[in-house]
Design a protein that fits this description.
Length: 296
Amino acid sequence: MSVHSSEQDYQALIAAEAAVWSAAARDLAAKWRPDWADMRRTRHYAVVDGRHIKQLLRLVQPEWQVLEIGCWSGWLSLEMARRGAHVDGIDVAAEALKLAQTYAAEHAPRGSVRYRLADINYEPLPQNHYDLVVAVGVLHHLAEVRAVLERVRAALKPNGLLFVIDPLDTPTANALLAGALLFLLPTKVRYRDKVRHLLRFRQRVVERMKASIEARGLSPFEGYGRHQMPLEILRELFHVEQFRVYNAFTGYVIANLAMPESLAIAVGHLLLPLDHLAVRLRLLQGLSYKLLARRI
Ligand SMILES: C[S@@+](CC[C@H](N)C(=O)[O-])C[C@H]1O[C@@H](n2cnc3c(N)ncnc32)[C@H](O)[C@@H]1O
């Protein structure tokens, strides 16, 4: 692992990772409850990922044992527990888990939910225990993708399911189109400054767009798992039943629009059919994938 030369460095980096996601959970809580009822109304889920989360929720059966890795403020673990499942949510972000715990205590689900502060890179898991493991937006943050997925496979019951949503790398065409749309549409950057940035960065503008789309530098391990070929590892360790690539530009564009949520959602709904078409015709590559796999 090159990101950290010693155990001490690693601990400092993972603490910084946790601090970023705790702060993000605090910011989110100022506006939205850690509850699917609220999250589904945010622009990202209302437009881009809501359908995939709904598909996941339809799969969850009462009495299932479920593990969510990178559960953050707990909204998805709680919703799965509302379907009658017994859910373990693991995350490194202590404050995010505290929010999750407090909220779940006040809104006790039909099943059960337990949140655990742990680093999934090194956390042992019970063997043959889970019916479903969920990893939404977390594999690309991991230092030890293969080791985690091997432990996840062993933790699943035979025929148990793994559900993953994660980003893919950004081709130049996507960066150019997203950049053009955000140049035209209102964002928190003033139009005068957009022109200034364009003139200032010129050739570097595409690289900067890619970095922004991939949120490079947002947290110490942001994108770290991307370089470990997670898809190859997933295909090697699991039987992939569904794999869908989507979201060529819509998610990033709407995330940056400076407008009320309802208007951003309306713009997202206008862009999404074009996005789907561009991906289907292979004019653009999707920047997200959803995968449903079974333990072999
Ligand atoms: C992009 S966020 C996704 C959060 C949540 N799954 C969602 O979609 O709302 C990534 C989450 O993974 C967590 N995370 C990052 N590295 C981790 C690790 N080594 N062990 C456990 N959780 C980790 C972060 O704290 C953060 O909550």
